[in-house]
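Q: Sequence in, structure out?
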Amino acid sequence: MEHNHRMELQYDGTGLHGWARQDGLPTVEGSLELALRTVLGFTPEVQVAGRTDAGVHARRQVASLHLPDDVDLGQLRASLNALTPPGIAVVAIVPVSSGFDARRDAIGRRYRYYLSTDSVASPFWSRYSWHTPGGLDVDRLRATAAAVAGRHDFTAFTPTETEHVFFERLVTHCVWRRAAGLPAAVPAGAGGSAPGGCGAGTLYLEIEAEAFLRHMVRTLVGTMLEVARGRRSLDDFRRLLRGAAREEAGPTAPAHGLFLWDVMYGHRR
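A: Exactly. Output:
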């Protein structure tokens, strides 16, 4: 007999080719399936809340899978953490209702994109933020986030070659904030860390929607920075949100600054 379970994971996307299994390449799904097969003797089907791209990190990823009723969940978690790469952590495995599907039942997904405009990149944080030195207008940056909130056509912010058919998405939350508590590069002779533990130029975009298009957050960030640096007007940015072509938007920001931050469900199952 088998029962449905919810698995919660975290992973550092550095060196991983995303969530989805790819022959001959290290991925989260491939590593997890190999570990499950080693422990259980078979590979259960895994449904995941969000299929992250190569290099993208996850603070909270959620998956659902059926496991034998007699499996020791604590021992299984320990075994999976021993058998998967050190950048992948299985945080919890708990029984849930038979109908729970980690992907279908998610009512929202929240991402964060971190960037640093400081002149020197922190060696402790450089794997997790886009170092793009130089001044930017934070008020203009925040205005772009305000423009993104709501329902828009995001065709300009996803690759032209795509499996998507519908490009409208409802963004329920979008804001740029100053980051705090991150290790920072300390200027020579400063004798201490920067205020809040991170460089004054460290910011993050927090964005939430029911679902996202591929590269949507990263292309939004790349285009937002063009506005914040005066290379594109805010009115032109708003025009892109009405369904312009991909080539009219800005560059796609690097993957290593992006985190799947949280997955929301209507209630715990």
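The radius of gyration is 20 Å.
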